[in-house]
Amino acid sequence: MKKTSSLTLPLTVVAMLTGSMQAANAADKSYSLALSNPGKPVSIDVEVYRGSITLVGYKGDTIEIMAKTSTFTGNDKDLKKIKNKMDKNTAPRSTKGLKSVKSQGMRLEIEEKNNEVEISSELPNQHVDLVIKVPQRSSVEVELYKGGDINIDGVNGGLELESYQGMIIAKNISGPIVAETARTDIVVSFSAFAKTSPSSLTSHMGNVDITLAKNIAANVNVQTYQGEIFSGLDKDFVVVDEIKKSKQGKKQEIVLGGSLQSKVNGGGQALSLISYSGNLYIRQGK
Amino acid sequence: MTNQEIIDWKIASLANNDSNELSEEMQSYLSQDSQLQAELLFIDNFWTKDIKPLVMPSDKLDVNFYQMLSRAQSAQQESSQQVTKQKPAHSSQEHQLPLLDRIKAWFMPTAIAQFATLALVFVLGFNLNQAPSNKYNSDDYIGLQQEVSSLSTMLAMSMLQKDSASERLSGVAYSRQTDLSNPLLVEQLIDLLARDKSTSVRLAVINSLGQLQSFGSSEQQLLTLASQEENLLVQIELCRLLLNYGSTDIKKLLTEQANQQKFKPEVREFIQAQSMASYI
Fold it and tell me: Are the beta carbons of B200 and A202 separated by less than 8 Å?
């Protein structure tokens, strides 16, 4: 009995802390943004310092933004550095007889011009969870520094995703996609694969896990230094040797043992998966 | 003066954004070639108009590019057809060898020598007849290859400047279709390697630089980039590039720097492993 309470107490405290952190000065807002040129290509650029970002493609022609913000009260070394700097520059003031008034507002900037949409939340002490519905054809650029994950679902345009602390999870996409994380995983499920430009997924320390729909044709290149590679593809990975020939054909240089490649369904546009210490998983979808 | 020189001048002036005028010699050459004028106009339009990813490469560029490619391919095909036409002549001579052996047994050596001389004259004549035509096709083919390479260079240089990482990756892919003989393209690639924020683009650039015949004056710059690099993946690949294709001096310098612990431990380990492998 005693054992049970000692286990449940810390969990409850963590849950309460998290709850209070999320609840502190939380504000929910939603906004529907009409595009200047409906039916034309759309580009969305989202930059968030702290929080999570979810983008869902839909058949509509407006941008639907739902934001939930709260003041970040957790421990953050970077935030402490900023606060210490500010404290050094300002003398302490008396608060005697004053009540603390907490800020209720959120700061989220949204700009649109000629179907180019920019959404940003750059305050380090604000946590923002964004859910954005975008036209399926949108091309998307997302940068998230701290907090949660980047989630993408059903967006058919080009994707450029960068997350420093959280995961990148994208499904029902066709790319081209260029994604990068530092220590966390990248999980991508392709329903089709764009031929316009190469795609590349790089995680420095995390795993890269992709699923390719059965009819996708691509040249899948894999490279990991300390991780392992697991493939469910019918087509094996083979070593691509490098051959250099001079213009006049006088000199040839051949390096055996280059990168590993699998030409899926006869091959196509390049899809590179790279990690230093993470594993690479290549799955065959339906 | 060649078309190639004028196209190279055009690309260089667009890339550097300078408005240097053509020399008189170039102007007079250009005024006599309406096709070249059209090509320059096309390059100008392509460069100055921002092309969105969905329509890239442009339809017009597609048409021009694939026309050139098809001309190059048909020239190559004609060349190879003529080579294959020659093959039966050689092979029929080879088939005659056992027959000659039999004849050798039946006739005097002088008759065999006469037959061999006749055969030799026939083969030489056949080859000499074909040689000018082959040379013409081969020159034509090399010329077209150069034109295709110029177009790829132009595309690469234009796309390396795009905001989208995916388009810059396309630019790097186009650069691999050239022989990287244009120093401006190499300069642009190295610049991208030094400052691009996408690791994917930087790794692709390193891969592309592996196509260079020689790093030349860029070698020292690449070594400096390698030693100052903070991105582990980029640093390892830069070291691999220099160890695989660098000069003996640069490999020595790189190994010395690794021994002086100027690199991250993972990179030092990599350099040591590569150095050991080269000794084996």
Answer: yes
Bridging pattern class, strands A252-255 and A242-245: antiparallel
**A197 touches B: beta carbon within 8 Å:** yes
Answer whether A247 sits within 8 Å of B165, measured CB to CB. Answer: no
* CA-to-CA separations, A71 to A22, A28, B236, in angstroms, rounded: 8, 12, 40
Do B233 and A204 lie within an 8 Å CB cutoff? yes
End-to-end CA distance of chain A: 49
In this structure, which amino acid lies at residue A5?
S
Q: How far apart are CA B148 and CA B138, in angstroms?
A: 15
Tens digit of pLDDT for each residue in A100-134? 876 666 788 999 999 999 999 988 888 999 999 99
Can you list the alpha helix ranges (DSSP code H) found in chain B? 3-15, 24-31, 34-48, 59-106, 109-159, 165-176, 183-195, 199-209, 218-228, 232-245, 248-259, 265-279
| Complex ipTM over 0.90 | no
| CATH assignment at residue A149 | 2.160.20
* Greater model confidence, B65 or A150: A150
- Number of folded domains in chain A? 1
Which residue range is the domain that position A275 belongs to?
21-73+106-236+264-284
What's A266's DSSP letter? Answer: T
B204 touches chain A (CB under 8 A): yes
**A146 occurs within a structural domain:** yes
By the CB < 8 Å criterion, does A196 face chain B? Answer: yes
Q: What is the mean pLDDT of residues B169-186?
A: 88
Using one digit for the tens of pLDDT, what is the confidence trace for A173-193? 998 999 999 999 999 999 999
Residue A8 lies in a domain: no
Any chain B CB within 8 A of the CB of A276?
yes
Domain-embedded: residue A196: yes
The answer to whether position A38 is within a domain reads: yes
Give CA B160 to chain center in angstroms. Answer: 18
Q: Which of residues 106-125 of A touch B (CB under 8 A)?
A: none
Q: pLDDT per residue over A200-225, tens digit each?
A: 999 999 999 999 999 999 999 999 98
